[in-house]
Design brief:
The structure holds 3 protein chains of 3 kinds.
Chain A lengths: L8 H5 L19 E2 L6 E4 L9 E2 L6 E2 L4 E4 L8 E2 L4 E9 L9 E8 L19 H10 L12 H5 L9 E6 L8 H8 L1 H15 L3 E7 L3 H11 L5 E6 L8 H9 L14 E5 H12 L6 E7 L7 E6 L4 H7 L9 E4 L6 E3 L12 E5 L1 H4 L12 H5 L6 H9 L3 H6 L10 H5 L6 H72 L1
Helix pairs in contact in A: 2-5, 4-6, 5-6, 5-8, 12-15
Chain B lengths: L16 H23 L1 H25 L4 H5 L2 H11 L7 H15 L13 H12 L1 H4 L2 E2 L1 H5 L4 H10 L7 E2 L2 H10 L4 H4 L5 H6 L11 H13 L6 H20 L7 H6 L3 H8 L10 H21 L6 H18 L25
Chain C lengths: L1 H27 L6 H9 L12 H11 L11 H12 L13 E5 L9 H5 L5 E2 L7 E2 L9 H5 L5 E5 L17
Antiparallel strand pairs in C: 1-4, 2-3
The chains are: A alpha/beta, B mainly alpha, C mainly alpha.
């Protein structure tokens, strides 16, 4: 029986986060529709956190829907599967949703229109599989976290084998404005999500599942409760709507009242958090043997004629999705992949969506709030908004002055880059950009330092080697000289003896 | 890719700096109108002149520094500084006092530090303090209630503005000044406190600064700001507690020598300070715990200066002293970071123990 | 008069006393040479490439400590080394002003004749190659010291900035007077 858990008063009184305009309608009220088959599918190799996948097909190869085209490269990585049947026409650089605007590697497939599946090995009762087997199959299916971070799901499933997991938390908070893909998925496919969550529970060895859903999604809560009804170990919990409720640590704190230690993981407090979309993908992977080749994407924004949620194949380009949402009614000020708070601005409409793309937003200038930054008035809104208790204005000040080390001392590493501070700033100071810059700069310096250390080692090794070689050469020379001298002496002695004898 | 980076977030609150300033001005309206109604045309003219002086000084400074003038003036911060300064001036003060005070506030306390957001000290309070120290006579000439009752017209206002209030007969002491004088003369508090009438303090029918006399109007504006989430409750509550608690304790211990807490709260600039001056964003700490220390400290200092200091009123000095501590408070009283102890060490991993049902 | 003499005498006594203490301390705790030169030299990349204009890294370290050269004088070290030295010596240095485009050697395939001159010269073994074979550069080991380019008989080696990738890209600092 699913219960409502009332959080202790302490948790209600703590103030963090913000309440941005939700703007989830009209997309949240409309059914998910299929986005159809675009003329080209571009499958990025770096869709997941960790190492990019390694291609295992060649240009000209014919692939089937669900066929693996790139394998996981390393322990934190995920394979990529073709999202329809067709021909591989290119393996190379393609536009990517990344803040830099730099391209990334991708496999381009031209669909043959038959959409023929590869042979699928479904399991009628996947809950009976061994935990290791569940994790293995999830890894094979290329399932990654679908909330945005795209962390390989199987890595989190395997956590249970190393640390004790007590609770699986299903993240149905969907706290970003505009996005309603998880909301629609919970309303329409609640059973898949609950079944997937039970599989995750089995794989990690947890004893219960808590599904946290924000109270601005009553229909989703109802649907999930109905689906969870047969299972006493699954509870659906209504949580307050607040951004960033969907941040892993904030969700754990809201549901359980424990704070995962900074620098540690959720598993340190016996919890593993998965997005609802990930749970559904896990279920499809095990029950039907279908790898992760499609996802629900919210296509929304003020510049679109008919915002709605679509079920899109991985690799579908943005322009195709925009057309499915009625097309653009005006030139958008920004195209964003992901949510408006943490998403990435893109300029190329040929950019494909990856497994972590929860939304495609065409935002007008008014929605983005484009304004010139002005001076900080130290209002402290950012301090109140920060979900982790940082002082964004002080950090930005230090970064502005070039004191990155000081910014680190007052918490730069703990920043989630959730954007709550940037949203509330009345002076529109690009706080998140400051933090991203500082982190990137520190990481770059660290890389450079490693490189220089490496180079210095090489230089010293070479100097030593050159010296040794010179010494050895000299020694060898001396030795040869000595040998020659000895030989000569010997010869001379022999000669002398001969002469002596002959004499 | 040559296009500039468009960093997240891609959404923004509607609340701009200018809008915040506008809300504060709206909140100041009741107390200001009460002051105008109470002290007549001279008060209105003084207010106008002071605000204009601040805006002009800001414009000149920006022009001189080669910074854009129009967008900075548009946020209204200079006008607000002038407004707050005018609120703390004697209502019938000569205009040159307002002009000088406004110029001091903007040039000396704000632009010299680098303009908006960079000043350490509250500009309005710097202006007021400079005037109080330089022109003690003009700054303590309160209009007597008898005179107020006669009513004013514009011509009289111009005359007062240009020449000042001529005779001592037309002025009277504020409660704090009166009490200080009487205690100094050896008269006990009960006698000095005869002048204190709480009902007058609520409506403002008493001698005092332009915008300080009507407690009800000030509190109404302050609560409006709290309701609009422009200011938090920490600084007002902390300030009032810091002022009233020691006052109440001292009064309980020696009723003849110390004013009661209520009189402290309702006299001088205490309430205006609690809601409008101590809450100035730029010069107050932004971390919650720092705000408590700052507010309680300012309240306590106000009481100490009023009780033992050379001046009858201590609000401006107390605020300036705590302003000086703000950068340190923001450094030391930082909030605890999620997942860390107060010192910054990561929390120990604590497992979920209690079953939820 | 007496007071004045007392004041003068006491100040004289304090002054001379402190002077003696300082003098003794200066003799007693004198340091032979400047230990900072060695410390700074350890921070430099040790390529001895001479791009700074000093005879080797030791010479540069001496000049930096003496104040005749800026900590930014080492192109192979780049921003990281400059900042580290500046911090160590307590020199104010604005990180944004340091030109930070690490250059590395790039060999033009069509021009390389496989003479192995560069390969034998490289102080950090960053070039791989054999006689009559096309040579290659290890990006990770190259300091951009330019010695190979100077010796290349065909001019096949040029110094070029490291290509920017998603992995090495850094979000630019907001251009704003906050």
């Amino acid at each position: 029986m699913a219960h409502l858990v009332i959080p202790p008063i302490r948790r209600l009184l703590t103030r963090w986060g913000i309440h941005p305009d939700a703007r989830k309608h009209p997309a949240a009220g409309l059914d998910i529709v299929d986005a159809g088959l675009p003329p080209l599918l571009v499958l990025p190799l770096a869709q997941q956190a960790g190492a990019p996948a390694r291609p295992i097909v060649r240009i000209g190869d014919h692939v089937l829907r669900g066929q693996c085209v790139a394998e996981a490269a390393g322990p934190i990585s995920a394979p990529v599967h073709a999202s329809t049947s067709g021909t591989v026409i290119a393996i190379g650089e393609a536009p990517m949703p990344h803040a830099s605007g730099l391209p990334g590697l991708a496999i381009t497939v031209r669909p043959d229109g038959e959409d023929r599946w590869i042979e699928r090995a479904g399991e009628p009762y996947p809950i009976r599989l061994a935990p290791e087997e569940i994790a293995r199959r999830v890894a094979e299916a290329g399932v990654v976290g679908m909330g945005g971070a795209a962390f390989p799901a199987a890595v989190k499933l395997a956590l249970g084998q190393r640390s004790v997991i007590d609770t699986v938390i299903l993240n149905g908070s969907e706290c970003e404005p505009y996005l309603s893909c998880d909301d629609r998925l919970m309303r329409e496919n609640a059973a898949d999500i609950i079944e997937g969550a039970r599989l995750i529970m089995r794989a990690t060895g947890a004893r219960r599942v808590l599904a946290g859903i924000e109270d601005n999604k009553p229909e989703a809560i109802d649907a999930m409760k109905v689906a969870a009804h047969p299972y006493p170990e699954v509870a659906v919990v209504r949580i307050p709507s607040r951004y960033p409720m969907g941040a892993e640590r904030q969700l754990i704190y809201t549901l359980l009242g424990v704070e995962p230690p900074a620098g540690g993981r959720a598993a340190d407090v016996g919890v593993v958090v998965h997005n609802v979309g990930t749970a559904a993908a896990v279920w499809r992977a095990l029950r039907h043997g279908e790898p992760l080749i499609e996802r629900v994407v919210t296509v929304a924004g003020g510049a679109l004629a008919a915002p709605r949620n679509v079920r899109a194949r991985i690799g579908t380009p943005l322009y195709w999705l925009i057309e499915r949402a009625g097309g653009l009614t005006r030139e958008p000020a920004r195209m964003v992949v992901g949510g408006p708070m943490m998403g990435v601005a893109v300029s190329d409409l040929d950019t494909p969506i990856g497994k972590g793309a929860s939304g495609v937003l065409a935002l007008t200038s008014a929605e983005v709030g484009e304004r010139e930054p002005s001076a900080c008035i130290r209002c402290g809104s950012c301090v109140t908004a920060c979900p982790v208790g940082l002082m964004p204005l002080e950090m930005a000040n230090r970064i502005h002055a070039g004191e990155l080390g000081q910014a680190e001392d007052i918490g730069l590493r703990d920043c989630l880059t959730c954007g709550a501070c940037g949203y509330v700033c009345p002076s529109r100071i690009p706080l998140v950009q400051y933090f991203a810059h500082a982190r990137g700069e520190l990481a770059s310096r660290e890389r450079e330092r490693h490189r220089l250390d490496h180079v210095r080692e090489l230089t010293e090794a070479r100097a030593e080697r050159v010296e040794r070689e010179a010494r050895e050469k000299a020694e060898a020379h001396a030795k040869r000289k000595a040998e020659r001298a000895a030989a000569q002496a010997k010869e001379a002695a022999a000669k002398a003896r001969d002469e002596e004898i002959s004499a | 890719m040559n296009s500039p980076v468009q960093a997240s977030p891609h959404a923004l609150t509607q609340r701009t700096s200018g809008r915040i300033m506008a809300l504060v001005m709206v909140a100041l309206l009741p107390a200001t109108l009460a002051g105008f109604w109470q002290f007549g045309w001279p008060a209105f003219c003084l207010w106008l002149v002071t605000v204009a002086s601040c805006v002009l000084a800001e414009a000149l400074c920006l022009q001189w520094a080669g910074k854009p003038v129009a967008p900075v003036l548009a946020d209204g911060s200079a006008a607000l500084t002038g407004w707050l300064l005018a609120m703390s001036l004697p209502p019938w003060a000569p205009w040159w006092l307002g002009v000088l005070g406004g110029a001091f506030s903007i040039v000396l306390a704000k632009q010299v530090f680098g303009g908006m957001g960079c000043n350490v000290f509250n500009p309005a309070m710097v202006g007021r303090t400079v005037l109080l120290v330089s022109f003690p006579v003009q700054m303590t000439q309160w209009v007597s209630p008898a005179l107020i009752a006669q009513g004013t017209d514009l011509a009289q206002a111009v005359s007062i503005g240009l020449h000042g209030v001529a005779t001592d007969a037309m002025t009277s002491a504020s409660l704090l000044g009166h009490v200080k004088t009487e205690l100094g003369r050896g008269i006990d508090l009960a006698g000095a406190m005869v002048a204190f009438a709480p009902d007058q303090a609520y409506t403002g029918a008493r001698p005092g600064s332009l915008g300080e006399t009507s407690a009800l109007a000030i509190v109404a504006g302050g609560l409006f700001l709290v309701f609009k989430r422009v200011i938090g409750l920490r600084i007002p509550i902390g300030y009032i507690a810091g002022l009233c608690l020691p006052a109440a304790i001292a009064h309980a211990a020696a009723p003849d020598a110390f004013m009661p807490a209520g009189a402290h709260l309702l006299s001088g600039g205490a309430l205006l300070c609690a809601f409008f001056i101590a809450t100035d964003y730029v010069t107050s700490p932004s971390a919650p715990f720092g705000q408590w220390i700052y507010a309680v400290g300012a309240g306590l200092l106000t009481w100490l200066i009023r009780t033992w200091g050379g001046y009858p009123e201590g609000v401006a000095f107390a605020i300036l002293l705590m302003n000086a501590a703000t950068p340190l408070l923001d450094l030391w009283a930082r909030p605890r970071i999620f997942g860390r102890r107060v010192g910054g060490k990561p929390l120990a991993a604590r497992r979920v123990q209690e079953p939820l049902r | 008069m007496e007071q004045m003499i007392t004041a003068v005498m006491s100040l004289t006594a304090i002054g001379s006393g402190l002077g003696i203490v300082l003098g003794v301390a200066a003799r007693r705790f004198a340091v032979e040479g400047d230990s900072r030169v060695k410390e700074v030299e350890d921070m430099l990349p040790a390529a001895n490439c001479g791009q700074c204009g000093f005879p080797g890294c030791a010479g540069a370290a001496e000049a930096i400590v003496a104040g005749t050269a800026s900590p930014t004088c080492c192109p192979p070290g780049g921003k990281v080394v400059a900042l580290a030295i500046a911090e160590h010596l307590g020199i104010a240095l604005d990180a944004d002003e340091v030109d930070d485009v690490p250059l590395i050697a790039v060999i033009e395939d069509a021009l390389c004749i496989g003479c192995t001159k560069c390969y034998r010269l490289c102080p950090s073994d960053a070039i791989i190659g054999a006689m009559k074979q096309l040579h290659g550069v290890f990006e990770d080991a190259c300091t951009g010291c330019n010695q190979c380019a100077e010796k290349c008989p065909t001019g096949a080696i040029t110094m070029q900035p490291l290509p920017l990738t998603v992995g090495t890209w850094v979000m630019p600092k907001p251009a704003l007077a906050a």
